[in-house]
Amino acid sequence: MRELTYYVGSSLDGYIAGPRGEFDGLPVELDVAAAMNGLRPETVPTAFREAAGLAGASNREFDTVLMGAATYRAGGTPSPYAHLRQYVFTAASEADSPDVTAVAADPAAFVRGLKAEAGLGIWLCGGGRLAASLAAEIDRIVVKRYPVLFGAGIPMFAGAYAPLSFTLTENRAFESGAVVQTYRKA
C-alpha cells in the first residue's frame, strides 16, 4: 500500500507560511536543498529542475502530489509539478492546467483511494487546512524546520484539536541551523 507523506518546510514555531500566505520567510538553505534534492528530486518544481541540475532526474519517492488551493496558486504556474500526478483540493471545478486534477471530494476518502493504487508514495505538499483534514491518513511527516520565528501565519496543521501520536525516526541537523525531522505514525 502506498504511503502519504507530509513533506513540508516550517518555521521554528510551526508555521508553513505567513498570515497572507507569504512563504519567502523560509530561507533557502543550500546545505538542506542539496541533501533533500538528492533524496527527493521530484519535490523540486518543474520550472526549477534544470537550474538545480535535476532535469533528467527520476522520481525516487513520490509519483503523486497533493496541494491545497492556496499552495497550488503559490506555485505561480498552471502545472507546478508536471513530472508528478498533481491533485489540487478546491471547490472550483477545474484547475488551470489539464495536467492538474481538481478534487472537490472528501480529501480523506480520496487519499484512501490513491493509497490502494499501485505506484510510488504520495506527497502532501501543503497547506495547513488540507493537512489537518488528512491527519489521520498521514503515514509519515518530514519537516524541514528552519531557524526562524514567524509569530503568526498558516500552521502546519490548521484544524480542530485532535491529538495523534507520531514517533521521531530521524533527526538530521545542518550547518545552516536547519533540521530535517522524520516522524512515523505511532
Automatic annotation (TrEMBL):
<dbReference type="InterPro" id="IPR024072">
    <property type="entry name" value="DHFR-like_dom_sf"/>
</dbReference>
<protein>
    <submittedName>
        <fullName>Dihydrofolate reductase family protein</fullName>
    </submittedName>
</protein>
<dbReference type="InterPro" id="IPR002734">
    <property type="entry name" value="RibDG_C"/>
</dbReference>
<dbReference type="Pfam" id="PF01872">
    <property type="entry name" value="RibD_C"/>
</dbReference>
<feature type="domain" description="Bacterial bifunctional deaminase-reductase C-terminal">
    <location>
        <begin position="8"/>
        <end position="179"/>
    </location>
</feature>
<dbReference type="InterPro" id="IPR050765">
    <property type="entry name" value="Riboflavin_Biosynth_HTPR"/>
</dbReference>
